[in-house]
């Protein structure tokens, strides 16, 4: 009789463990699906975006680069605070690349960009 009670408790414990693991697995799959959909949405938005360079120039001091871009895509570009500029250029010592965050001020500081 004691073994039947112990076996019943063990079976209940195993079933509860399996249910907990199943729930955790389903929750993980749901999170993965949501992140996959968000990634797919961003990729689709990027595919409908098309920026074409119209003009570029540099001030005589060499500190300020002016680039004019045209949006040929179907997505309206906004929320500049989420934009970053990656600029690759050639110097006498070789190729250089820099990352420049957006500055809300009309006159951006060094290593920033603005409209």
Overall description:
This protein has 115 residues and is of the alpha+beta class. The chain has two domains: 1-47; 51-101, no CATH class. It has one helix and four strands; from the N terminus they run αββββ. The chain has one helix at 2-47; strands at residues 51-58, 65-71, 84-91, 94-101. The longest helix has 46 residues, at 2-47.
Chart the SSEs and their pairings:
Layout: H1 2-47, E1 51-58, E2 65-71, E3 84-91, E4 94-101
Antiparallel strand pairs: 1-2, 3-4
Outline of the structure:
With 115 residues, this protein is α+β, with helices and mostly antiparallel strands. The chain is 40% helix and 27% strand. The mean pLDDT is 86.
**Approximately what portion of the residues adopt beta-strand conformation?**
25-35%
**Helix and strand sequence:** HEEEE
Average pLDDT works out at: 86
Given the C-alpha coordinates, what overall shape results?
Answer: elongated
In the residues, how many domains can be counted? Answer: 2
Euclidean distance between termini CA atoms: 82 Å
- The main sheet orders its strands as 1-2
Helical/strand content category? alpha+beta
- The tally of beta strands, per DSSP, is 4
Q: What is the helix fraction of residues, given as a range?
A: 40-55%
Number of helices: 1
Radius of gyration equals: 28 Å
Which residues form runs of ≥5 with pLDDT under 50?
Answer: none
Main sheet specs: 2 strands, antiparallel
């Amino acid at each position: 009789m004691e073994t039947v009670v112990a076996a019943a408790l063990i079976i209940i414990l195993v079933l509860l463990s399996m249910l907990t693991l199943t729930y955790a697995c389903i929750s993980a799959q749901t999170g993965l699906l949501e992140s996959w959909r968000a990634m797919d949405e961003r990729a689709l938005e990027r595919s409908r975006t098309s920026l074409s360079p119209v003009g570029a120039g540099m001030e005589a001091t060499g500190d300020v680069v002016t680039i004019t871009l045209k949006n040929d895509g179907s997505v309206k570009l906004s929320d500049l605070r989420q934009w970053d500029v990656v600029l690759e250029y050639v110097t006498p010592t070789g190729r250089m690349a820099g990352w420049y965050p957006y500055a809300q001020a009309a006159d951006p500081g060094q290593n920033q960009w603005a409209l």
